Amino acid sequence: MKHYLQHDPWNIVEEGFHRDFNEVTESVMSLGNGRLGGRGSFEEKYSGKTMLGNYVAGVYYPDKTRVGWWKNGYPQYFAKVLNAANWIGIDIDIEYETLDLNHCEVRDFRRVLNMEEGYLERSFVARLKSGKEVQVNAKRFCSIVDDEAGAIRYAIKPLNFDAKITITPYIDGDIRNRDANYDETFWDEVRKETAYGEAYIELRTRKTGFHVATGMCVSIEQDGLSIDYQSQPIKYEKYVANRITLDCRQGQETVVYKYAVNLSSLNYDPDTIIKEAHQYIQRITRKGFDKMLFEQKQAWADKWKMNDIVIDGDIAAQQGIRFTIFQLNQTYTGEDERLNIGPKGFTGEKYGGSTYWDTEAYCLPFYLSTADQKVARNLLIYRYKQLGKAIENAQKLGFRAGAALYPMVTMNGEECHNEWEITFEEIHRNGAIAYAIYDYVRYTGDEQYLVDYGLEVLISISRFWSQRVNWSKSKEQYVMLGVTGPNEYENNVNNNWYTNYIAAWTLRYTTEAVAKVKALNPEKYAELIDRIHFREEKELATARQIIDKMYLPQDDQLGVFLQQEGFLDKDLMPVSDIPKGQRPINQHWSWDRILRSCFIKQADVLQGLYFFEDEFDVDTLRRNFDFYEPMTVHESSLSPCVHSIQASKLGMKEKAYEMYLRTARLDLDDYNNDTEDGCHITSMAGTWLAVVKGFGGLRVEDEKLVLSPYCPDNWQALAFKIRFRDMLVQVTTTQRDVTVQNFSTMPITINLHDKDVTIKAESQKTISSKVTA
Amino acid sequence: MKHYLQHDPWNIVEEGFHRDFNEVTESVMSLGNGRLGGRGSFEEKYSGKTMLGNYVAGVYYPDKTRVGWWKNGYPQYFAKVLNAANWIGIDIDIEYETLDLNHCEVRDFRRVLNMEEGYLERSFVARLKSGKEVQVNAKRFCSIVDDEAGAIRYAIKPLNFDAKITITPYIDGDIRNRDANYDETFWDEVRKETAYGEAYIELRTRKTGFHVATGMCVSIEQDGLSIDYQSQPIKYEKYVANRITLDCRQGQETVVYKYAVNLSSLNYDPDTIIKEAHQYIQRITRKGFDKMLFEQKQAWADKWKMNDIVIDGDIAAQQGIRFTIFQLNQTYTGEDERLNIGPKGFTGEKYGGSTYWDTEAYCLPFYLSTADQKVARNLLIYRYKQLGKAIENAQKLGFRAGAALYPMVTMNGEECHNEWEITFEEIHRNGAIAYAIYDYVRYTGDEQYLVDYGLEVLISISRFWSQRVNWSKSKEQYVMLGVTGPNEYENNVNNNWYTNYIAAWTLRYTTEAVAKVKALNPEKYAELIDRIHFREEKELATARQIIDKMYLPQDDQLGVFLQQEGFLDKDLMPVSDIPKGQRPINQHWSWDRILRSCFIKQADVLQGLYFFEDEFDVDTLRRNFDFYEPMTVHESSLSPCVHSIQASKLGMKEKAYEMYLRTARLDLDDYNNDTEDGCHITSMAGTWLAVVKGFGGLRVEDEKLVLSPYCPDNWQALAFKIRFRDMLVQVTTTQRDVTVQNFSTMPITINLHDKDVTIKAESQKTISSKVTA
């Protein structure tokens, strides 16, 4: 835990330079716009602790797999998010000294991520070894309007000298991934160009052959006026720059504007990509920094108008939830169905791949409630487009006849993870992908999606489940052997309740979806079943058999579902019995000890009761919660949110708040001591869920929005905005009452604290508060 | 399967050069003497497929661990058998051409491993590109008399030309392990020296700092007479040689004798090791090649006298069993308690480490019955000396109070394997180490071993088991969760019958051993328990509780023990149902598919019934054999031998023979297509077991030798020699009768086919044959 960042409702503030935590700050202060982004590093050279990271969405490299011991079925390559050309760099040399905060006295340092307006600002005074003092103010953003561009305003002022200052804005493409398995370089240079104040470089990824053109243009002001300058172009291998030497007077501010673009061959023809970069640069340079920043602020204001959450009376919580919303919006905008939500977004490169089950299980509801319907739809389309690869993936593992197993981690649809207990056995991900279709249709009412895309995915996943179970003669039921559930602190278990349940549920939902699509569009249905050789009668009969006879382990005496068969053989004890100094257990215990202990990384049974809550009564939830919560160590950042939601539902306000706190400031306080690798982007969605589904009680039932909001004890008010179909509503809950404001031009009816309430167009209604007990 | 090697009772013969199989032949024709050894490669340069390998026992390098995903508890380093300086090399240049069989026409090629006398011989005629033809005859051995030396006789004769021939005997220390994780070099040069016809190089391993001095001396004969020659010394980095150019006439044979030594700092002071090498070289050079080879033949004759097995009527089987005995003797001589039996011996470097549970479970009985008692005893002492490391190893995994977990793979007592499901969970190895003590004491009657060493190891292992089980409230029994049994096609299972059984057995045997040692030597006992803080009453009470209440899964209806809990949930089917072309399944199926299938790599339950056969009746064995055998794919080379022994016991002669055949010629026929990596040294002991314990029915009961030999149907006779305490007996069994010859100077009483039979000193007795039904 670290507490060096200031609490502030709209900004993340580092006051004074915290060298040792610089990589943490860089992660937290990352910028992104869905297409490109990078860490909050310095523009000028910094020889201290830093991890430079600039990323271009959708551009990846298949790094050769590294294993200790090969297991049949492992992928040969592992697609990685690529650290790309550094476009932010501006070297500063003052006579014979390089400005490098690692070798200066630094004062008045302040680095601020402005979340309201979407930019990063940094100012400081540096005293060089020679005694010269300079004041710097740098401002940078990745534009969400011109979403392949970024811009920097870098102002430097000599405080106690006159001198020649050399300013070298550059693009450096000689970049490696810190997590490269064999220290390989992933980029080759294709070409480079320099011109007066401009420089371009085109790089190509090895193997995958993506082209990325990065360009920059520099303009300079002194005394508030644009000036002409002498510029010396520099070209090295994978590096282009302009070296500009200026006479600077004491007290005079020199302002460098650096405009940059990153175009990738995902969107441009490689033959003309440098030309396009040139034109793009010209366009944004003409627009200018101030106009770009103005548009950025406007665009962010529009976003906040749709999805801000206001917490009254707890500034740390306010900051945490805004950080969550800000980062999720920076990571994924839903413009492009080829992109997805990487676990680190644009804030780091660890874990490779861009897509985990996190997207469907945690992130989808956020985008459903805060963005246009097409955003969530594009997340589903992403998987639809990768169905072919999922079928190939299942074939590699011995499945047949169109069965699909989506990969655990992917970039382009191919599996890119290689731990057998995860890659091959954490198959519950397939269930989450089916569930996301259900969740989307339930929320949006867009049944046409089933016709056009959804049913095909559901049938393919159902085929997998039908083949993955086997009939146990000894139980006279279907069993599923050798799986790893969401609780990754158990591996290769038999009859994981969550996985068995979601498998049977998928078969059930597929059966319903078949009926629905048949009714909605018999021609399209006929075309589909012909194309994918769906033998309706036979396959649905098998599905029904499995649904009827699926083994779901439970203990009648305790009245709980068993995480997996045999769970009660463990030495059961609460987390509070773990000796001091041994947590997190994953940093203190060997893997076998974790596996045979009763301790749970994230509780799968509770995850299942969250997904399928309509199918269980509250007493069942309470018994399972009381049984599993005390054994859960929450060493997955995806864990506490579900517990918080469940605790809210059970009226356990304190527990709900405690669980909410576990993720609310995970990265801001570097809770797990790993934020330096990047932020936990997908688990941020969990924080949002804890607030909106937990405290807010958001649900959809029978095509209707359901809310049962309450305000945690130490907050004065909580207000959140959500979209639901054609509506935009704001829910404000205090300790006394709840106000729902309808921004729509039509009256709406919602279920509020178990009662139907109608709110007129563009008006609001307040009722007294009630906590579900 | 390959059948290019000739069948011959005493020799392994390659007739004609089989280029594509050269690495297989090199493995099979490896030479060793317990201290050094290497693969059957060529002396002269060979640019084709070859894997050069020369090894010095006990010299290893801790290679940095490579993993895909780190798990807490993995060792940082992984000790590897080191490929050491190449001392066999002799380059031959004929005018401007290098003799390289990869670029010649080769005829009359013949490579023979003479197992009776312990040397490798190779002859051929090569026609160079120029048309020149030379005839070569090379003979090489690793001396078991001068066991740090090897010698080569390399004879070359021009067949159709007179020319200058340049002969360059060399030592090359610029050697890397093919399996190095990061392509690192493990050796540094310390010094090198050359003199007339001599050359020395001293290398040091990085990190571990072992010194190895390798020296050579060359003498040359022409026309049968030793000649003086001009020699040009050559020194490169890590390389020393003497270049000798001779005038050779058509038809004249030039014979090069190369004497070499490898001294290691395990046995010599690094300060004087080069000097020692020099003296050693002088001594053997004075002795001369012919005398050395004569002594070698004598020494091998002595060995064969003690442990030969004669199979009459099946030359392939005869060759197979002699190959087994030959390789086991080449690998381990029991002279040095710091050494052990690597899985590849001196025939390759794969798998790293030198010691697996193979030593205790499979190899020990071979050495017990074929060598002096001290050989087996040294294998036990090896583990005793590593007890401290085993306790540290257990501590790393969270165990306390002197509990010991021996590593899965080791060189110096530290774990050097890193698959969690094996390293942390294949803990049954600890049981095998306890069992070996029992096996040794039972066979030799050496109860003093328990006093001096055995009990301390037993108590430490028992402490591990006592902590590793936990009480299941739901079963009201002790359970053992999260283990991998000998059947590695199941991972992380609960209540593996074999592991639970051997754990309870260890506790039982430890309790008995405590009583025995107390009775034999109360002072030593008191000293021991004080030193290791053994709280006798408390620890034995715990042990008794666990023995009484250990859960051992079984199915009463089928009357079988269950490999692990839940085994009957699997889709049970015989191996014969696996579709054609999908075997071995480990090359065709993904790991998860293997795990959830019913197919067994090696059957743990049958292994347990083999170890503890006195505790089960034959009907129990038969039911379990009939249940498990059909599901066993025998994809471990350690598997078939146990099935063969059990089948023999059950009177299933055909099955016993079928299983015997699976290992009998494993490497000679390259059964699994992997002999090129080296021979399966430890599983060779299994072949011997199948013959002596299976066909021979060798057991020890109540201090008495028990035999119930029979002769497989297609053999005319089987004769094997064994030692038992003071006796040396030969058992000869034909289809009609059994003859036991007593070579001892005392009468002996043995149990032969369930009857006590006394045989007078130095005489024999024949009884009519009977097969146990």
UniProtKB/TrEMBL annotation, chains A, B:
Pfam families: Glyco_hydro_65C, Glyco_hydro_65m, Glyco_hydro_65N. The keyword Hydrolase applies. Residues 14-265 form the Glycoside hydrolase family 65 N-terminal domain. The keyword Hydrolase applies. Residues 698-758 form the Glycoside hydrolase family 65 C-terminal domain. One of its GO terms (biological process) is carbohydrate metabolic process. InterPro entries: 6-hairpin_glycosidase_sf (IPR008928), 6hp_glycosidase-like_sf (IPR012341), Gal_mutarotase_sf_dom (IPR011013), GH65_N (IPR037018), Glyco_hydro_65_C (IPR005194), Glyco_hydro_65_M (IPR005195), Glyco_hydro_65_N (IPR005196), Malt_Pase/Glycosyl_Hdrlase (IPR017045). The active site is at E488 (proton donor). Belongs to the glycosyl hydrolase 65 family. This is Glycoside hydrolase family 65 protein. The lineage of its organism: Bacteria, Pseudomonadati, Bacteroidota, Cytophagia, Cytophagales.
